[in-house]
Amino acid sequence: MGENVSGIYSILNRPAIFGAFHRLVVRRDARRVLVDEYIRPNAGDRLLDIGCGPASMLPYLKDVNYTGLDLEENFIKQATVKYGGRATFIHARVQDLAAKFDCEFDLAITIGVVHHLDDGEAKELFRAVSKLLKPGGRLVVSDPVFRERQNPLARMVMSFDRGKSIRTKEGYARLAGPELEHVRTDVRSDFMRIPYDHCISVYQKPGPTASTP
Ligand SMILES: C[S@@+](CC[C@H](N)C(=O)[O-])C[C@H]1O[C@@H](n2cnc3c(N)ncnc32)[C@H](O)[C@@H]1O
Q1: Which CATH number fits the domain that encloses residue 191?
Q2: b vs e for 94-126, b when ≥16 Cβ sit within 10 Å of the residue's Cβ?
Q3: Tens of pLDDT along 97-129?
Q4: 129 lines ligand 1 (CB under 6 A)
């Protein structure tokens, strides 16, 4: 599996530490940009947040019918206490997706997760998402990315990441199978307070549009 979960890395599984770390390095408006420019939900959309962590995206996703899934029980417990009245949380792994859902969601998002998965697991994720989306439904993926002439500080911070499968833009593009149409990919360097680069991709399941493209 493309993840380091031992020693110092394991403390990031604690919701309070994860939250403090993110508040320190992630720009305040980064999640708003992800929602307004890429996710673009419609009111009432059924949205699945894969690897939701403590559900940090949820406050930015008003009016959707939100389901969050994560393998870390701590995150699912905290998210359920905080948001259980307006959302559903499931303790499960990406590898369980195909068995759990079928053509139910207008939107799927997976933010900061694919770089925790090796190529086999990531391809399985894309296949499972193509099954759980309604025709016309969309997937939004965001992860750190390696690029040429990258700021050395960004490279260094990425080398400390728990996810051991950070890829290039082309490396991420190779993971999606023919079941999902590629809509758009951007590399952005404006989400963190430190030099850092993210690859954000949007895919769509062929069929009538279920939500704003
Ligand atoms: C960097 S965190 C991102 C959390 C959240 N998406 C966010 O935007 O803050 C990565 C998350 O992916 C989850 N994760 C990693 N591998 C997973 C897997 N195989 N199945 C389910 N969740 C996984 C981790 O537990 C963690 O919560």
Answers
A1: 3.40.50.150
A2: beebbeebeeebbbbbbbbbbbbbeeebbebbb
A3: 999 998 899 999 999 999 999 999 999 999 999
A4: no
